[in-house]
Amino acid sequence: MSILSKLVPQEVKFFDLFEQAALKIHEGLDAIQVALRKPEELEASARHLKDIEHEADEIVHTTIDLLNSTFITPIDREDVQSLVKRMDDILDLAQGAVQRLWLYEIREVTPEMHHMISVLVKAFAEVHNALNEMRNIKNIAAIKKHCIEVNRLENEGDFIVSAAVAKLFKEARDPLYVMKWKEIYEITETAIDRCEDVANIIEGIVVKQA
Q1: Using an 8 Å Cβ cutoff, are 185 and 165 in contact?
Q2: 103-134 pLDDT tens trace
Q3: CA proximity to 87, closest of 112, 114, 51, 59
Q4: What letter does residue 138 receive in the DSSP assignment?
Q5: Domains of the chain listed by start with CATH number
Q6: Of 150, 114, 111, 113, nearest to 130 (Cα)?
């Protein structure tokens, strides 16, 4: 990379990498929904998801490499780094939940888990919409609208997991079953929380750029 190219803000490249990361996360979340509908194939699904996660990690590494080789960035360096890492966490955590379903030999997925993944998919869709709007940072109202919806969905996720854990303690008789599902629910909830983290980072960027 030439000295001149280092000095010119790599705006298009960074936003293209954000888009690549978002599409890879969508691919992973779609695969998770398929996996939950076919619990008898969880081992193959978990391995497939691991491959997608690895591809997502490569995008993060590419973004960090570009960040380290660019003097002037379109948004603050720490925001770029936080954004891609928190986005990567979303898929890592969701993949981890599916992996535990396989490792714990759970072959019947609860309605609450389906509901939580549905909320996660919706929350990340709003994150992706906000990222797309960031290419035109002047459209602040649209960006904030998507971020507010992510916050609402995060609250919905919290409610679902609280009710799901309460149901476990009330109805389940096997302590190991309770422990397994409680962990899986909480990991999935954290994935939804990471969507809110990304939305908060985006809102912070908008405030700085306004």
Answers
A1: yes
A2: 999 989 999 999 999 999 999 999 999 999 98
A3: 59
A4: T
A5: 7-209 (1.20.58.220)
A6: 150
